[in-house]
Protein backbone atom coordinates (compact mmCIF):
# COMPACT_ATOMS: atom_id res chain seq x y z
CA UNK A 1 0.00 0.00 0.00
CA UNK A 2 1.29 3.43 -0.88
CA UNK A 3 1.53 5.87 2.03
CA UNK A 4 2.61 8.86 -0.04
CA UNK A 5 4.53 9.84 -3.15
CA UNK A 6 6.79 12.86 -3.55
CA UNK A 7 7.53 14.61 -6.82
CA UNK A 8 10.64 16.69 -7.27
CA UNK A 9 10.32 20.39 -8.00
CA UNK A 10 12.70 23.26 -8.61
CA UNK A 11 9.98 25.86 -7.96
CA UNK A 12 7.90 25.25 -4.81
CA UNK A 13 5.64 28.25 -5.43
CA UNK A 14 4.78 27.20 -8.99
CA UNK A 15 4.19 23.59 -7.91
CA UNK A 16 2.06 24.74 -4.96
CA UNK A 17 -0.18 26.85 -7.19
CA UNK A 18 -0.66 23.95 -9.64
CA UNK A 19 -1.41 21.28 -7.01
CA UNK A 20 -3.52 23.52 -4.75
CA UNK A 21 -5.83 24.16 -7.71
CA UNK A 22 -5.74 20.66 -9.19
CA UNK A 23 -6.04 18.61 -5.99
CA UNK A 24 -8.55 21.10 -4.61
CA UNK A 25 -10.88 19.83 -7.35
CA UNK A 26 -10.71 16.45 -5.57
CA UNK A 27 -11.44 18.01 -2.18
CA UNK A 28 -7.84 17.42 -1.10
CA UNK A 29 -5.98 20.01 0.98
CA UNK A 30 -2.48 20.62 2.26
CA UNK A 31 -1.63 18.41 5.21
CA UNK A 32 1.95 19.48 5.86
CA UNK A 33 4.45 21.99 4.55
CA UNK A 34 7.89 23.36 5.22
CA UNK A 35 10.51 25.45 3.47
CA UNK A 36 11.28 22.72 0.93
CA UNK A 37 8.11 20.61 0.68
CA UNK A 38 4.31 20.56 0.63
CA UNK A 39 2.14 17.46 1.09
CA UNK A 40 -1.53 17.08 0.16
CA UNK A 41 -4.03 14.44 1.19
CA UNK A 42 -7.49 13.63 2.43
CA UNK A 43 -6.15 12.76 5.90
CA UNK A 44 -3.04 11.45 7.60
CA UNK A 45 -4.46 7.92 7.39
CA UNK A 46 -4.90 8.16 3.59
CA UNK A 47 -2.31 8.07 0.79
CA UNK A 48 -0.94 11.48 -0.12
CA UNK A 49 1.15 13.29 -2.70
CA UNK A 50 3.80 15.92 -2.13
CA UNK A 51 6.29 18.12 -3.91
CA UNK A 52 9.80 18.55 -2.58
CA UNK A 53 13.11 20.16 -3.40
CA UNK A 54 15.68 17.34 -3.44
CA UNK A 55 17.56 16.83 -0.17
CA UNK A 56 20.95 16.61 -1.89
CA UNK A 57 20.61 20.16 -3.23
CA UNK A 58 20.80 19.06 -6.87
CA UNK A 59 18.14 20.03 -9.39
CA UNK A 60 14.96 17.99 -9.41
CA UNK A 61 14.65 15.80 -12.50
CA UNK A 62 11.89 13.62 -13.87
CA UNK A 63 12.14 9.85 -13.40
CA UNK A 64 11.57 8.16 -16.73
CA UNK A 65 8.86 5.55 -16.18
CA UNK A 66 7.87 7.02 -12.81
CA UNK A 67 4.21 7.96 -12.52
CA UNK A 68 1.70 8.77 -9.81
CA UNK A 69 -1.84 7.44 -10.36
CA UNK A 70 -4.66 9.30 -8.58
CA UNK A 71 -7.83 7.25 -8.13
CA UNK A 72 -11.22 8.67 -9.11
CA UNK A 73 -14.76 7.38 -8.67
CA UNK A 74 -15.99 7.49 -12.29
CA UNK A 75 -14.94 8.40 -15.85
CA UNK A 76 -16.63 11.81 -15.64
CA UNK A 77 -14.37 12.71 -12.71
CA UNK A 78 -11.30 11.57 -14.65
CA UNK A 79 -12.41 13.78 -17.57
CA UNK A 80 -12.98 16.80 -15.31
CA UNK A 81 -9.66 16.51 -13.47
CA UNK A 82 -7.62 15.73 -16.59
CA UNK A 83 -9.12 18.81 -18.27
CA UNK A 84 -8.33 20.92 -15.19
CA UNK A 85 -4.71 19.73 -15.20
CA UNK A 86 -4.32 20.75 -18.86
CA UNK A 87 -5.97 24.14 -18.13
CA UNK A 88 -3.44 24.66 -15.31
CA UNK A 89 -0.52 24.14 -17.69
CA UNK A 90 0.01 20.38 -17.62
CA UNK A 91 1.24 18.69 -20.80
CA UNK A 92 -0.83 15.91 -22.35
CA UNK A 93 0.64 12.39 -22.12
CA UNK A 94 -2.50 10.56 -23.28
CA UNK A 95 -5.99 12.03 -23.25
CA UNK A 96 -8.68 10.79 -20.88
CA UNK A 97 -10.43 7.73 -22.24
CA UNK A 98 -10.86 3.98 -21.95
CA UNK A 99 -7.79 1.75 -21.82
CA UNK A 100 -8.81 -1.86 -22.24
CA UNK A 101 -12.04 -3.36 -20.93
CA UNK A 102 -12.41 -1.82 -17.47
CA UNK A 103 -9.80 0.92 -17.04
CA UNK A 104 -10.31 4.62 -17.78
CA UNK A 105 -7.46 7.14 -17.46
CA UNK A 106 -6.02 10.47 -18.54
CA UNK A 107 -2.24 11.01 -18.44
CA UNK A 108 -0.35 14.29 -18.07
CA UNK A 109 2.90 15.89 -16.95
CA UNK A 110 2.83 18.62 -14.33
CA UNK A 111 4.74 21.91 -14.83
CA UNK A 112 7.94 20.24 -13.53
CA UNK A 113 7.58 17.34 -15.99
CA UNK A 114 6.44 14.71 -13.47
CA UNK A 115 4.05 12.17 -14.99
CA UNK A 116 0.67 11.54 -13.34
CA UNK A 117 -2.71 10.19 -14.27
CA UNK A 118 -6.26 10.22 -13.03
CA UNK A 119 -7.94 6.82 -13.36
CA UNK A 120 -10.92 4.71 -12.39
CA UNK A 121 -12.01 1.14 -12.88
CA UNK A 122 -15.19 0.82 -14.94
Tell me about the largest β-sheet. 4 strands, mixed
Low-confidence stretches: none
Please name the fourth-level CATH homologous superfamily: 2,3-Dihydroxybiphenyl 1,2-Dioxygenase, domain 1
Task: Please provide the ordered H/E string of secondary-structure elements.
Answer: EHEEEEHEEE
Q: Domains counted in the coordinates: how many?
A: 1
Total count of helical runs of at least 4 residues: 2
Query: What percent of the residues sit in helical stretches (DSSP H or I)?
Result: 10-25%
DSSP, total strands: 8
The proportion of residues in beta strands is 35-45%
Sum up the overall morphology in one term. Answer: globular
Keywords:
39% strand; 4-stranded mixed sheet; globular; alpha/beta; 122 residues; 2,3-Dihydroxybiphenyl 1,2-Dioxygenase, domain 1
Can you describe this structure?
This protein is an alpha/beta fold and 122 residues long. It has a single domain (4-54, 68-121), classed as 2,3-Dihydroxybiphenyl 1,2-Dioxygenase, domain 1 (Roll), CATH 3.10.180.10. The chain is built from two helices and eight strands. A four-stranded mixed β-sheet has the order 1-4-3-2, with helices on one face. Strands 5-8-7-6 form a four-stranded mixed β-sheet, with helices on one face. The longest helix has 13 residues, at 12-24. It starts with a strand and ends with a strand.
Provide a concise account of the structure shown.
The chain is of the alpha/beta class and 122 residues long. It has helices spanning 12-24, 75-87; strands at 4-8, 29-33, 37-41, 48-52, 67-71, 91-98, 103-109, 115-121. The protein is globular.
Amino acid sequence: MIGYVTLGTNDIDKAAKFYDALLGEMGVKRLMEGDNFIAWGAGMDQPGVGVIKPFDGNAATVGNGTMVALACDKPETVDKLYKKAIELGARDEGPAGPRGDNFYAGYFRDPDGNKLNFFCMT
